[in-house]
Amino acid sequence: MSGQAELVSVVVNFLNAERFLEEAIASVHAQTYRTWELLLVDDGSTDASTEIARRHAKRDAERVRYLEHPGHENKGASAARNLGIAQARGELIAFLDADDVWLPNRLERGVELLRRHPEADMVYGESEYWCSWDAGHGPCRDRVQPHGFRADRVVQAPELLIRYLTNRAAVPCPTSMTLRSRAARDSGGFIESFRGMNDDQAFLARFCLYHDVYVAHECWDRYRQHDASLCATAARRGEVARARQHYLAWLRAFLAESGLRGTRVWDALRYAERVSKPDAGLFAKLVRKALKLATTVSMGLKPRVRLVPPPASATSLSRASVSTSQSARNEGS
């Protein structure tokens, strides 16, 4: 990466986010790093957030673009993020969910760390789980989610995925991620069959399998906690465990198709499958500890090898592969 200021494409996907979208956009404008473009990706909103996004695109047409799927279709957050990735003009891409906000140094630190570590294709930090924005949020308190392992270093692929599967690392919020555009597209982007829970985990699984990641012991964003969020809604409906099983089944099929049976990643997946069963009590805890020990021993007997990714053309996300009515919408704004 050169010493010049790299353009960062900020992708904000939203669906009926009129309550929070202005604050998210304001946090982008407040960044100390100024070389950015803002892509506001509408996933079929029916509230005032569509007009809010169009207004910002019209007001600052040089830096802000409004994107939507053809026919104003709702296709899910994964498809919305992929539309942003495909249309991004920057060398780097940073995600911001419409109900979250960035701290002012978010982009500056992401760019700086990727410059300093050219071997890494992504950088992320810790996120503040933000409750104090709402005085009536109950017993929830603001907290920064720790990574769960030694950070401030480049983690070589596929070690992060193994850590996620064996519960030795917290999964980051998309709002904290900055990626090289090339790597985001080569990895295939987000998996569009995931329209709800674990869309971020499926993306990270495919990305971290082959790409090195710098993990920073710093907090640059606020992950808003509220009852209408995807995670809160899934928990209220009792869908979390089922969503986890769906993700693990997808990952098993993906790893098998990629020829990775018998690898350390496969062992980590098998551990995740076994401990994901909703067993309770002392005996279940002992079984989990025994499984973790057995998995650690099994992985320790296998060499740490760098996995060979498939040809980029087999997975790459391109502008041609993602349709948009962006230009038509801008002309009509």
Describe the structure.
The protein is an alpha/beta fold. It has a domain at 8-236: Spore Coat Polysaccharide Biosynthesis Protein SpsA, Chain A. The protein is 40% helix and 16% strand. The protein has helices at 21-29, 49-59, 77-87, 106-116, 159-165, 181-186, 199-208, 230-236, 240-257, 264-275, 282-300, 312-315, 326-332; strands at 8-14, 36-42, 64-68, 92-95, 101-102, 122-130, 143-144, 153-155, 178-180, 213-224. Helix 5 (159-165) runs parallel beside helix 10 (264-275), helix 9 runs antiparallel to helix 10 (264-275) and helix 10 (264-275) runs antiparallel to helix 11 (282-300). It is globular. It starts with 7 loop residues before the first strand and ends with a helix.
Assess the beta-strand content as a share of residues: 15-25%
Low-confidence stretches: 327-333
Number of helices: 13
The CATH architecture of the domain at 8-236 comes to: Alpha-Beta Complex
The largest pleated sheet is described as: 10 strands, mixed
Shape: globular
Question: What would you give as the CATH superfamily of the domain at 8-236?
Answer: Spore Coat Polysaccharide Biosynthesis Protein SpsA, Chain A
CATH class of the domain at 8-236: Alpha Beta
Order of helices and strands: EHEHEHEEHEEEHEHHEHHHHHH
**Helix-strand makeup class:** alpha/beta
Helix content estimate? 25-40%
CATH topology of the domain at 8-236: Spore Coat Polysaccharide Biosynthesis Protein SpsA, Chain A
Average pLDDT rating: 89
Span between termini: 36 Å
Cα-based radius of gyration, to the nearest Å: 20 Å
How many β-strands, per DSSP? Answer: 10
